[in-house]
Structure formats: structure tokens, C-alpha cells
Design a protein that fits this description.
By secondary structure, the chain is α+β, with helices and mostly antiparallel strands. It has three helices and eight strands. Helices cover 33% and strands 25% of the residues. The strands form two sheets. Strands 3, 4, 5, 6, 7 and 8 form a six-stranded antiparallel beta sheet that branches.
Length: 153
């Protein structure tokens, strides 16, 4: 019986350590936003996707998203979609740029979703990145696909 208690204590300690790690490392990354027309590049880890990554970088690259409506209409549609999902909050919104934090259903992992609409262009750039961990099991890539699907007529 003593061995079972020790295993239980070790499992509890690992779970507490995991949650402390997640909490300590889930601060908003520095450098988010648009600088000289570019979103922050993805780190080397596979938990980030960006339409501004190099097309040769298959791990991080997604094609930019074309849209037909006005910037304001598309931006509001996407912001509304994520806010109505119940697990997102709008951090920054100005015409041509949105920063949305999306929390996972399990463990409340936070992902930073950025939408950038360059002026005089009908192309939207997206960067979606997990704050914690190494692999995101394609959650961010799926989010970009979902955005693309929302804008298809």
C-alpha cells in the first residue's frame, strides 16, 4: 500500500509542477503587433503558423487569405466569431489589426491570434501561436483554415 501512496504523491507533484510551469510561462510575448508591415516571426517550435513565414518553411507557412468585403466588415466578422466562441478575448483592435487571445478548452492554454490587413490590399495576414509548449497538435493551423473557411462565400 505504501508504494501506491508514493506513486499517487509523485503523480500529484508532477501535475502541480505542470500547472505551475504553464502559469509561469503564459505571459504575453513581447513584440506582437505590426512593425514595418510585418508580424512577429514564428519561433523555431512547431506551435506557430504565419502567412508571412517563408513558403519554404512548411512547418510555419500558410497562404495569405484573400477577402472580398471591406477591411472593417471582415475584421468585425472575425472578431465577432472568436468572441462568440466563449474562449477568446480581444486584446487590441484598430482598423487593420486585431490581437485576440484564444484559450484552449483543456488546461486553458493561451494562443495569440493576430490578424493584419495591409492598406490598399485585399489580403489578410494571420499569425497564430501558442504561448506554452512545443507542439500544438496543429491547433493553430486549423484556426487559420477556419478563418479562411469563414471568409469563403
Amino acid at each position: 500500500m505504501s508504494m501506491v501512496r508514493w506513486i499517487f504523491v509523485v503523480i500529484i507533484a508532477m501535475l502541480v509542477g505542470f500547472f505551475i510551469y504553464v502559469d509561469l510561462n503564459s505571459d504575453m510575448p513581447e513584440g506582437l503587433g505590426v512593425t514595418d508591415g510585418l508580424l512577429l516571426p514564428c519561433p523555431d517550435t512547431p506551435n506557430c503558423i504565419s502567412t508571412q513565414a517563408s513558403p519554404e518553411d512548411v512547418q510555419h507557412y500558410a497562404e495569405p487569405i484573400l477577402y472580398k468585403d471591406t477591411v472593417k466588415a471582415v475584421q468585425l466578422k472575425l472578431e465577432k466569431h472568436f468572441l462568440e466562441s466563449g474562449n477568446a478575448r480581444l486584446v487590441d483592435s484598430r482598423l487593420g489589426y486585431s490581437h485576440i487571445v484564444v484559450e484552449s478548452d483543456l488546461f486553458d492554454f493561451q494562443d495569440d491570434l493576430e490578424l493584419y490587413f495591409p492598406e490598399a490590399d485585399s489580403v489578410m495576414h494571420v499569425r497564430s501561436a501558442s504561448r506554452v509548449g512545443y507542439d500544438d497538435l496543429n491547433v493553430n493551423r486549423e484556426r487559420v483554415r477556419q478563418i479562411r473557411d469563414l471568409l469563403v462565400d
